Amino acid sequence: MRFIDCISLWFSSLILSYIISGFLYSTMARLPLTARKRKRNLVLTNMMAAFMFMCYYVWILLLLSYKRKCWKIERRIRVRELRSKRLYQLIRESDVPCISELRMDRRTFDVLCEMLRDVAGLKGTRNMPLEEIVAAFLYTLSHHLKNRTIAGYFFRSGETISRHFNTCLLAVLKLHHHLLKKPEPIPEGCTDYRWKHFKNCLGALDGTLRCPWG
Range of 65's domain? Predict the structure, then answer.
């Protein structure tokens, strides 16, 4: 509960106690003096007890709200540390986990991040750096896993992983002129014994020769 809600609850209870005390005072006008005095003391005691109870209740609510806020901050810090540790293990610790999980070594990963940043214009966000975006993208392509699995692996939400995956995919598609080599047909004067018999062919693609005329 927010602080303003606690204050409004406290004021509403105080106003209610004043209304009840006014009603009791109006009924005490017809009583004898001793009974009226006894009744007044009882009303004051009840009002004081209600006031102390409300103060204690508001204090408990504020304490629980503070504890909840501290727990959220601690959880956010712990998750951030786990993210940093996971990213360090993937792209900074050694080439072995980087090749095993992302299918490229650390140097190639750094070159790809630079190309995506400088050529394709991909940028990191306030909560997710560029390296983590590219690592999540490559990890998804390398292992062909579901979005929910990737979100749990990188300690992110499914919406965050899906949004940054699409952003990184569009950035990678902008690099097709730099990453994809345009096939060139084998020239007429080729002297390579492996290819001189396949003139004007584009080479082997999945074990199949592609000829411009067929």
Answer: 3-78
